Amino acid sequence: MQAAPYILIVGAGFAGSVVARELADAGRHVHVIDKRPHIAGNAYDELDTHGILVHRYGPHIFHTSGERIFEYLSRFTEWRPYEHRVRGIVGGKSYPFPINRDTLNQLYGLDLDEAGAAAFFEQVREPRDPVLSSEDVVLNSVGRDLYEKFFLNYTRKQWGLDPSRLKAGVAARIPVRTNTDDRYFTDTFQAMPLHGYTKMFESMLDHPNISVELGVDFADVRVNIKASHIVYTGPIDAYFNHCHGHLPYRSLRFEHEHLPNVEQYQETGTINYPNDHAYTRITEFKHLTGQKHKGTSIVREYPQAEGDPYYPVPRAENEALFKRYEDLSMKESNVTFVGRLAQYRYYNMDQVVGAALAAAKRLTG
Questions:
Q1: Transmembrane region positions (predicted)?
Q2: CB burial class (10 A; 0-12, 13-18, 19+) of residue 315?
Q3: I need a labelling partner for 280 at 20 to 30 A (CA). Which of 27, 140, 313, 329 fits?
Q4: What is the percent of the chain with per-residue pLDDT over 70, rounded to a whole number?
Q5: Over the Cα atoms of the chain, what is R_g?
Q6: Tens-digit pLDDT profile for residues 108-166
Q7: Which domains does the chain carry?
């Protein structure tokens, strides 16, 4: 550990690394620890044994409409333009997802124009008022048949819960379109770090005021910390030793596979399997990176309850439990809590960067 005064940052993912760089640029001495043997958090990527760049913790597709966020990260990486596309397998056939006009025409054998697609949705939707759950969101938008074909079983696999038991915001993240735009995201800036996320993080943490120590669990060293301030990006309930009980998080198991002499395994970067198999989706990394290779590498995602925390589970009772921990965090004047796990929010990457920049500004202000 460094000699005081220094600021300790727990976690070398987006939240921790952005705060570290901002504080270092402001002249503060920063020590970053992470219990994993690498930086970049869940965005960590590396060459697999076959030389293909893969995301170890599932696909991370960068997209934002925040010019400030994109320009900030552009200090640490060049970009490869990339617009993510997803297909959903229903009844053994592949359809554009999120649902758009082409999905309707292909699924139902129709020939709808944009106005016809809007009229179709209006005819099949089941109005819900108030809209409280994810089930309400989807039924209110596209009706029961599309709900059951594309959303119901996928959600059950992903969250281990029926959509009726999840807050509306989960499904509200997925648009429904009357046009033929088959991009998964419509943000202004859509790109992948040209040389990968890990290289971007290496650049971000490359500063004389930043030291990094990996393979260090905060729980093992917290009694010996002499830092003037702590920036904590781990699960907030773990910081307080789960004194109010465990906050529910959803985890994932990743099954990586290399396919030799297969140049392209699937038509788009990600294919969803809402109704078949124990996994939710398969991602082929060469779509994301543009890498040329005679083989290809894919990953299957299996949601599970146990394991590293990835997603806060958005339910009202979980939010109430988080508020109890948040009240405790307000009394920790020398600790800043920031990030998806520390703030128990279903942040996208750009939202984490925004939250981290805001936190750093408060600390340096």
A1: none
A2: middle
A3: 140
A4: 99
A5: 22
A6: 999 999 999 999 999 999 999 999 999 999 999 999 999 999 999 999 999 999 999 99
A7: 7-83+191-248+312-364 (3.40.50.720), 100-172 (no CATH)
